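tool_call: predict_structure(chain=1)
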Amino acid sequence: MYLHILYDHFLFAKLIFLAIQVAFNCNVIFPRLFAKVLRGLALVNLDIVPALGLECAFNKFNYIDKMLLVTLTPLALALLLMIGFAYSFKTKNEKAKNVISYLLLLLSYLVFVGTSSTLIFYFKCHTFSVPTGHVSQSYLYKDYSVSCNSNSYKLYLKFACFMICVYPIGSK
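tool_result:
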């Protein structure tokens, strides 16, 4: 009986956590009082890349690098967990299988919103009109150091499309 109540509270907390992550990663404009409450809850925003200070450590760290880090790191961790799962399956260790399964689900839950929003913002470019000519310049909305007309942006655009199939679409 108590387990059922605990599970309901866990689901409610999970929904609140997901809603807060969406609010932080999608730049939604909220009423002033609610925005103040959200700023207090900024701790649960799992976008840890800015906290790592990679822009300072690596001179050329840009949004493309962030997208690569945010999409490939969870896949590498999942691969390591799946190797552990295969080993525990081979050794018939039920407890290890359960723990690894839980960790895989937890990993997918924790990275879903941040990774998906990083991928979706890769497609948002801000176009500036040049007053002297007919050519306009287009830059990535989240990082104006990345030109949307550059070859590197176009190359990683294919990667972003593939990762959209892996994360937001592939997890359905």
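agent: The chain has two domains: 1-45, 51-166. Proceeding to next step.
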